[in-house]
Amino acid sequence: MKRTGILFLVSGPSGSGKSTLCRRLEGEGEAEFSVSCTTRDPREGEKHGSEYYFLSTDEFDRKVGAGEFLEFAEVHGNKYGTLRSEVIDRLLDGKDVVMDIDVQGAAQVRGCEDPAIQRALVDLFVMPPDERELAARLTGRGTDSEEVIALRLKNAIEEMAHWPEYRYRLLSATREEDYSRFKALLVAERLRVSRLDS
């Protein structure tokens, strides 16, 4: 029996820990990470094709026009998107794909009519325990200015209002507790009979 891969779509505000969870899942060989495209500048240590595909605005817009994106959105003044080629072929090959994606992109993926996406989709919203902890996490990164942190905090609070749109919610605790529950959800979804071809 061959199963369809799972599209593990993970959202949450900046500072929720979602990116760490996704990268650890990939690092342990549990799923393949869907690398997104962005028009923002690389941060220190980030490499093209690893954290993101870094595109110019013109390159990004050309791909939009050619229908190459599964989803795309503008966030914090920059454009982000997921290439169809990063996802659908892997799912059909039975591979699990994890996507770290904002709420705008998640809504577009949910609305995608491709049967491979509809069959594979599992969506999870990662919530920080409270706004104070979220602010501490954003400040603790040490990578952004006060203005950027203030914008991210404002956007994060707005994003958190979208958690009821998701099938699952993970209320963040410690890194190890979060990852244990995160991975358990993926394992449970793999056991679903509806994912197996008879």
UniProtKB/TrEMBL annotation:
Give the residues the record marks as binding ATP. Answer: 12-19
Keyword NAD on entry = no
Query: What protein family does this chain belong to?
Result: Belongs to the guanylate kinase family.
Reactions catalysed, semicolon-separated, are: GMP + ATP = GDP + ADP
Swiss-Prot/TrEMBL keywords: ATP-binding, Cytoplasm, Kinase, Nucleotide-binding, Transferase
- So what EC number does this one have? 2.7.4.8
Q: Which InterPro entries match?
A: GK/Ca_channel_bsu, Guanylate_kin-like_dom, Guanylate_kinase, Guanylate_kinase_CS, P-loop_NTPase
- Quote the function comment for this protein: Essential for recycling GMP and indirectly, cGMP.
Q: Where in the cell is it found?
A: Cytoplasm
Note the SMART domains from the entry: GuKc
Gene name as annotated: gmk
Q: What is the protein name stated in its UniProt record? A: Guanylate kinase
The domain of life for this entry's organism is Bacteria
Q: Please report the stretch or stretches of sequence annotated as the Guanylate kinase-like domain.
A: 5-187
Q: Name one GO cellular component term.
A: cytosol
Gene Ontology molecular function terms on file: ATP binding; GMP kinase activity
Cross-referenced CDD domains: GMPK
